[in-house]
């Protein structure tokens, strides 16, 4: 094995083990599992948004020029950031949406736009790696 690769693997092993030691927490019997379940639900719906972003790119956006695509994705990413402001100002209640539902929808949109943002780079790296 190359010295550079073994050095990187050593560094990663040390980081993982030190994180495990630092973050070790004893079992807490009275934890609020309802909150943990709701966070897991939010992230699982966010994963659906990421899948939708990949499908949208594959079916509709893969033939668009990269500069135009990145411009529009960044614009939508900035607009999605305004959802946090709407939540903080409690404007979502004017649309009869609970905070929980608004957060779930916002996470799905965030993951979808994030996937769209990285897809041109993934495709470009794949083309460079395999010579397509």
From TrEMBL:
The keyword Membrane applies. GO terms for cellular component: membrane. The keyword Transmembrane helix applies. Keywords: Membrane, Transmembrane, Transmembrane helix, Transport. It is found in: Membrane. The chain crosses the membrane at residues 38-57, 69-89. InterPro entries: BT1. It is a multi-pass membrane protein. Signal peptide: none annotated. This is Uncharacterized protein. It comes from Gossypium stocksii. The lineage of its organism: Eukaryota, Viridiplantae, Streptophyta, Embryophyta, Tracheophyta.
